[in-house]
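Hi,

I'm pasting everything inline rather than attaching a file, because the server keeps stripping attachments. The sequence lines come first, and each chain or strand is labelled.
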Amino acid sequence: MSAAADAIDLGALREGERRGRVNWPLRIGVILVGLVVVMAAVSFVWTPWDPYFVDGSNRLAGPSPSHWMGTDRFGRDILSRLMVGARTTLYVGVVAVGLAAAIGTPFGIVMGMAPRRLGTPLVRLNDLLLAFPALLLAIMFGAVFGASTTTAMIAIGLGTVPVFARIARSGTLQVMSTEYVLAARSAGRSAPAIAVRHVLPNISSLLLVQASVSFAIAVLAEAALSFLGFGTQPPTPSWGFMLNDAYTVLQVMPLQSLWPGLAIAIAVLGFNLLGDGLRDRLDPRLAEHRS
Amino acid sequence: MATEDHVAAAGHGASSPGPSTRPGAGGPIIEVTDLVRSFRQPRTSLLSSPGAVHALQGVTLEVRRGQRFGIVGESGSGKSTLLRLIGALDRPTSGSIRFEGREVTGRSERHLKFLRDDMQFVFQDPMGSLDPRMRVRDIVVEPLVALGRGDNRARLEELLDAVGLPATAADRYPHQFSGGQRQRIAIARALSTRPAVLLADEPVSALDVSVRAQILNLLAGLVRDFDLTMVFVSHDLSVVQRVCDFVAVMQDGRIVEQGATEQVTTNPRHPYTRQLLGAVPSMQAALAGQTAADLAASAATADTDR
Amino acid sequence: MTAPSTPPTPGAASSDRSALVVEGLDVAAGRLGLVHDVTFRLDRGDRVGLIGESGSGKSLTALAIMGLLPDGLSAAGTVHVPTAGAAHDTDVVTARESVVADLRGRVMSMVFQEPMTALNPLMRVGRQVAEVMEVHDLASRGEAKRRSVELLAQVQLRDPGGVARRYPHQLSGGQRQRVMLAIALANDPDVLVCDEPTTALDVTVQAQMLDLIVAGAAERDAALLFITHDLAVVATVCERVMVMYGGHIVETGPTERVFRSPRHPYTRGLVRASDLGPVGSPDGSSDHRPLPTIPGSVPAAGEFPSGCVFRSRCERADQACHVQPPWDGQPDDGWACVHPYDPSVTEGGDHGD
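And the predicted assembly:
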């Protein structure tokens, strides 16, 4: 009907509006995440000090020209450890989110494309998994397989699978109701071909937004696990473990906990803003499929 | 209907264009018998079992080769459901559909290739029927790819040309086109497999008035040039009348009247057809003095509360 | 202030009958102009159609008149509703939101295309009809409730009492649109704006709805502004039409004159393209000549040519069309074109009348 007429009209306006307005969340998100990435990248070639170098004579030092952020209770340079810790953080985030997306997305697409009689039980199963707290799963994993960075991120990843599955399913349902899928079916396209050619590209922006939000959650979860002793093990630098370390001297040197805390906050905020910004940027295109 | 069948010559005979040489009376190409389609409603109560919606309640029709077969009805009449069943996008509850003499119902997707090859859809919403993430070149040849045919570069240009689009359109995305151009892309896609039958579901309902005429002309030309059979579903009787030589009027899942378009529109026998005809506003009638009250009176029915 | 392309304000001294006076109305999204210099006037009892395709600016014009432009869009010019009260001749464009809100639903009201989204899904429809009367303190709660059932009966809903107790999703599209009309008519407005009110409806329902709209407006002696893309509908409902293209009114006049002898090439193209032949007459189906068309398609907002907005699709366009064409003819019966079609010259290809 000519609902289309007006939708096009207003769509064009929104397009113009979007072009004019700066997407601040996206910009700030990119800058903050970029900061973390640069820190991690630089740490491969250069750090101010050897992050593992113990200087017994210079423990718990405040910021100074030689140690910009001071030293920890073993006399190790905090900035250097923070930079190397960024690697751990990103590594955990990438693997956990990658794992979650790699399992959750196909599962979600299958749930969305399966006939109702098969899809409904799968959805209930997913809801059940969704109700299970990821952190608890990670602690269980740690207890069974031994605490390490790898166990932590696998646990976080597996815990995030149902989140991706649900997002992928809702996106799939939307795409499956469009006429271009009907057209593809009438052209004889098989279900797997439709999933790959039509569904996946069209839900990719949804997944991207979810990935950046999940990334933030994974970073936080890794920090929490390490803090609790179920994640990254010493002496490998990890922001969560550094926070745990600093916590023991909180009374004496409160500044010690500020640095890893700030780093975690920046990374989490950065990825969350990135997610918000991407949503603003990408969603209007999805909104083009009016029901 | 006329019964001078030319089964052997039908379809690919190079008939000269013009209304009189298009009798629309080849052999039957689509035969629908006693088609029923019911949908179970979602459960709303714990105690009573969910009801069913009977979208189609025993539809029988026959489309002949070369015919332009119109299906007209209002929302909920089952016209789109019928078209999707004919195109094997949905399975009937009971009844039979035969395409070129072969049974369609009950076959698995793998055994429907003969139909996919020969039958293509054009849908209503030219935005919704094109994948926004695909380039025009991929959209247009998708049916060929689905059928496992290889490189189609030449075919692509031919198709774009046939629907009046420049070759440069191939590298662009659907949202870069206007509604009418998008519908041209959809039509090019439908033609890619050189189908015998075009199934059009409200192909001009979402288009602007000034573009609608272009697309109707295009469809008419293609049907003539490629010897297509067209099944054309619309809520708009004036469009169907313009495009189709045969029309079936649907109401509540049934065909209440069918016949040659001219006969049905000038001498409607079923009261619902009369009501439908009476309800269509027309500029000529309005300029001749028909008011809204007159229109309502001629559309009047016992059931004013629909 | 008024560009040469606009019809000059009809009869500067406003008569007592005038219900809506729009002068030099512009709507813009930032720097992007979407509606340009729209000027017209409606008297009580008038039935005027505003025709246009997508992107013509017809819906934005309606929203601007109602003071309902979405965020990011701004209006300029004046919109007066003289009957709102002689003491304060409010200009909708500049007035405070609270003042305009008081006018809406009381002095002027609007029926939208999609009744499902225009009704509150969580509220019984009777309540929604009653509320519009209570909001303006025109009725007590009990009175409003009684009147709401009356209004639902007026729009010919069967069992109005029962319908009043239902929720929007329990009604059909046609029933919902009747409820919308009942709400719009509840406070006996002086101006009724209908934006594609029947586009989403079936033809048989549309016919009844059109009748209800015309009758409802006539009973209240309200001015009706009817917006649609459907020329046959407009011809049935309206006595006068305005044709919009690219945000400009390109032609206006009595319905019969405009449709029988359109002067602007766009109007002419539109009339010819939408004429599929009379339904139910023998020459409809047997006629397989191609339909007359307008070449090209409506440009996107901001991509209309300068000068005459239609010149990129016009067969008569030449150098003279690079400047904005002046208004020709009367304010309420004229066109903005330097090469108008001459009605005395008949051309082939038309359906004779």
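Chain A is about 75% helix and 0% strand.

If the labels don't parse on your end, tell me and I'll reformat.
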